[in-house]
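Two folds, back to back.
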Amino acid sequence: MSARSDALSAARLLLRASRGEDGTVDGSKAKSLVRRIGEAKPRGHILILDTFRRLLRLELEAREAHIESATVLSDEAKASLEADITARHGKDISYHYQTSADLIGGLRIRVGSDVWDGTVKARLDRLGLAFS
């Protein structure tokens, strides 16, 4: 195996070991594991820790929903969106709302690497590409 694939395997093991009983990443466990790897300095430890950091970042981003709309959303609309996102992506998600008039209308939702873009601006951009 290559050093990069070895580091990825080790980082995935570290990610599994850093999970708490509820399945989410436990910060104190992750810090303890990083400290132990730093002290032991196994072969390729810098690559392992860098890969572990990247996996942690992706894991934490998957627990955040960024919702962008053209207008301010009502409390009912927010509750409905949050229920749908929770059903699709699980519990313990934090929600961040932003208003941007540039979207013209609709919503753009990003949870981790998943993006749903139902904005008028995106539709107009796709239409413009189709005619160019």
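---
second:
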Amino acid sequence: MEKLGLIAEDTGKALKTLREITEERYSVIVRDAAIQRFEYSFEIFWKLLKEYLKVNEGIICNSPKSCFREAFNVKLLTEEETIKALEMTDDRNLTSHTYHEKVAEEIHSKIKDYYNFMNKVYQDMMEMLK
């Protein structure tokens, strides 16, 4: 299987684990696990987008924000989705500060929405790859 297919498979698995944790009853342990799952789901998600843009559009991007902007330029993401992706990137960058209760709670409160966003884009990309 080519690299794009492998990354797509890993993205699907990561998103599944993220969805599962969002269905758990809240506790500090569940919150922290959700944040960690968000971190690795985000990482594989943007790398899937990076590889997709490279293979299908000939675009090289090397950071999450540049990939999201390029995805907007080729109409893979809407303006609203791009804004959400950039916000999600900022929140991902804050996850190293989750020892601050307020930061952890704020990020956790957005994870289900971020899951829904990443899963929608993922599903749309899988349709285009068929």
